[in-house]
Amino acid sequence: MFRAAITGVTCALFAAVTPSLLRAESTNAVDIAALVVAADATGTSYCDGWTLSGLESYGANCLKFNTIDDSLISTNYPRAVVGLALSLRCSSISPTRQLAVIDSESGVELARFPTPTAADKLQSQVLRIDEATALHRFMLKLVGERTTGVWGVGSLSVIMADPVETPTGLCVLRPGATRVELAWTNSYTTVSNEMTITRFVATDAGETILFECGFDNFSAAGNPALCIDRLPPELSGELIYSPANTNGICQISSRSSLGVLVFDGLDDYSGVSLRLCMMRYPGDKSSTEMKVRWTDGATTNLVKGIKPGDVFGDEEVSLGDVPGGVRILLGDSVKSDHRILIDTMAFVRTGSIREEEVCVKTFPAPSGSVGAGTMDVGFPRLAPETRHRVYLRAYNRDGDVSSGSAQVEFTTEKPIPSVFRLF
Prior knowledge:
By secondary structure, the chain is mainly β.
């Protein structure tokens, strides 16, 4: 994930945050005890690629920064340093000297650590560094004036960036009939992207019953019985009854109030039909099966009003954005009798859905890719009114590929008819 940039010499500092919360591939713990042993307050010393100038021990396993310009220069890390996690102490809560983080290559000061809230007590701090600085070697240095503020470092972990991060924020800006405009964010190490586009194709493999309910535990004697608590886990609703003197029949609504039956048992409704065997009255033998079929690419719920006598056939219906699963709503009927009686209901998928590759293309990272890179994609022309999925990966200059891929789904629109004018 692209990290917020450091403006000037400021950056975000957070107390008591573990390194695992930062998006990076690895955290390298520095052996502070070994550095303490190597420290020489009178000059410069070296240990495991680190350079210590003027440092000395500050109690057990703690490096002391006692004099202006005392410094600790890191080894050269192979990947960009994107964070430091330290435990710090300071002899004063109002020091005139601070511990600064400096780019040891350019000498630019990046940030200064805030003073711990208690004197001479180690406190955890995490410093996040913008990846775009490509910092591979850094310096901790005592800066300021006068003599107030002796600083100590009790632990230090260096957080390095992934070789290349998975693109983030992939989204569809504008779907067309044969093209789509996408936007995403690359990390600064990305030099090219690989995009794979697939489409979902229905196959003729018979039918699969995804959910079926015959309301077998619905029953009532001389009066309608409220049966919301007898619905299976996939169903819920309001004003759900078993009609008087019946078994195995679900009644939605009363004569005077409208009810609702809600199904929330699927994540993908592509190619799915809702099939209802509805009755006008208990014992009605003349009712036929009614079907409502979702359009290709459906992933949201349907809101459909049903009236006694409705016959849907194989009608394709549009989708709504109301949350909470499929809602079977009731419209007004004659004589203000709102009741709907259901004998059986089922959700059935016709055939199966397979994902097939349309194209794979590698291209240079769009300009301004540290931020929102956008691209109008139409290679080759996409199929209209079809559900597609995009997979996007990133490459760095060394050919390393991101460990994951960003994904987004979309459905292309209907084509616009061509208009010919005859004169």
